[in-house]
Amino acid sequence: MDKPPHRLPVFLNLAQIRFPIGAIASIAHRVSGVLLFIALPVLAALLHASLRSEADFASVRGLLSSPLSLVVAGVLAWALAHHVLAGIRHLLMDVGIGSELERARASARLILVAAPALALLLLVWGLS
Amino acid sequence: MRLNIYRYDPERGDPPRMQAYDVQPEAGDKKLLDLLMRLRVQDDSLSFRRSCREGVCGSDAMNINGRNGLACLTALDGLKEPIVLRPLPGFPVIRDLVVDMTQFFAHYHSIRPWLINDEPLPERERLQTPTERERLDGLYECILCACCSAFCPSYWWNPDKFIGPSGLLQAYRFIADSRDTASAERLDFLDDVYRLYRCRTIMNCTEVCPKGLSPSHAIERIRLALLQRSS
Amino acid sequence: MRLFTGQRAWVVQRLSALLLLVLILLAMLALPFASPLDFSAWRALAGGALGGPLIALLFGALCAHAWVGMRDIVLDYLQPRGLRLAVLGLITVVLLGVLARVLLSLAMVALAA
Ligand code: HEM
Ligand code: SF4
Ligand code: SF4
Ligand code: FES
């Protein structure tokens, strides 16, 4: 076979590929992991401030009162909820529990729905 | 029926484009490949691979309405129109629906897809108990069509270094074979960030395998075998 | 670019995930008992013989876990060698910074107590 003359085209337009439910749960796991990573330095700073002085502690506590921080907290609550649920699913599948296609599809669907619900719960709990 | 097909002609050097076709299925046309054969009469410049027309040779894998599959096993009934056909995602396109499988087969070769056994040859054949034979079920049936690897995001990102679901299923086929004595070397070879550990258990591979096999399950078994060995 | 090999990193990620799961659940169960959490109670918790090491462990596991996870993402999406090394370096610095900051805060409280 002759060598191809120049660079051959490659079809890889993700918008034109139909992704199964498991792929959607997986990319969400990745996105949520990155969001949590970005939140880590902030978390460390908050921890530091909350231990430093009475006044800083109070301002950390009062942080959730602004609407913007509420949105940020909501996004992070979703990220944590989805990442942990998908993580548990991963760990179970790694040892062969629920790794057949039908059950993997069902659990992917389940965590995609359960994560926003759990996030809401976390948020309400955090505000109270 | 209406089709929309990815066209690329290397001689012309124009970028790939989509071409619309209309073709009338005739009595007895059941599978997508039947329709493609009629299309080829209409337009003999249209290129695709096919041979066995019954899901055995693995040559007519393509992306059908956004999912990989074999044209010869895809029923026309239930296909949404226009039927959109594109080459396997992530593979270099040689012409139309024909892709370059060189790298895919290089990965297959890299896992040494043959029995390795240094023990003296027995009088007749190397025997296997029925239970040992059963362990190969779900593995030996692979026809190397590449539907799975070309649907695996991890393979899209690292096609040169990640072996991909198809090659890993084959690797496990030999690790699981009681007549093969090279399991340890095979596992050594696979313990690598790229070769095995790019897999994120997305299961896109198992979703599209036209033979109903589960490469993700084979990968899970390889990881557990590696774990067992090091503990 | 090998960067911490195959199985070892995979195992670190699974073990740290398990540890994180346990610690996060523990924290969520423990916090309601400590509330209303005021400054001195919180300092006592973080400076305590149990709370301090647990928080340190939590962040240690977090950083190891996040490093492997972010490395995997970099190996997938960033192919040019220089870019890879730069981003991996940045991730490493950020995580070490997080760890240092948390350990310093905890040490500060423990020493004051
Ligand atoms: C809160 C801090 C956390 C951060 C910053 C974080 C970050 C990440 C990142 C970036 C990844 C890589 C994702 C990918 O490759 O697609 C990952 C993977 C993973 N995470 Fe987390 N994670 C955190 C907490 C957790 C927790 C609490 C669990 C517990 C179940 C967990 C379980 C997992 C598992 C099992 C994987 C491996 C997934 C795979 O191999 O594809 N993570 N994490
Ligand atoms: S595992 Fe299935 S999809 Fe993959 S190459 Fe083999 S037959 Fe094709
Ligand atoms: S399970 Fe692994 S091999 Fe299969 S599609 Fe997903 S990443 Fe690829
Ligand atoms: S033509 Fe042989 S597999 Fe479809």
Which structural class is indicated by helix and strand composition of chain C?
mainly alpha
Number of domains of chain C: 1
Name the helix and strand elements of chain C from N-terminus to C-terminus, one letter apiece.
HHHH
Give the names of the bound compounds.
protoporphyrin IX containing FE, iron/sulfur cluster, FE2/S2 (inorganic) cluster
Distance from first to last alpha carbon of chain C: 47 Å
Considering residues with a beta carbon less than 8 A from a beta carbon on another chain, report the largest interface and each chain's count. Answer: A-B, 25 and 35 residues
Amount of helix of chain C: over 70%
Give the proportion of residues in helices of chain B.
Answer: 25-40%
- Give the strand order of the largest sheet of chain B, numbering strands 1, 2, ... along the chain: 2-1-5-3-4
Supply the helix-strand structural class of chain B. Answer: alpha+beta
Task: Average the pLDDT over all residues of chain B and give the rounded result.
Answer: 96
Name the shape of chain C in a single word: elongated
Count of DSSP-assigned helices of chain B: 8
Radius of gyration of chain C: 17 Å
- The CATH architecture of chain C comes to Up-down Bundle
The portion of residues forming beta strands of chain C comes to under 5%
- Tally the beta strands of chain C: 0
Write out the CATH superfamily name of the largest domain in chain B: Alpha-helical ferredoxin
Instruction: Give the second-level CATH assignment, the architecture of the largest domain in chain B.
Output: Orthogonal Bundle
The CATH topology label of the largest domain in chain B is Fumarate Reductase Iron-sulfur Protein, Chain B, domain 2
Largest sheet of chain C: none
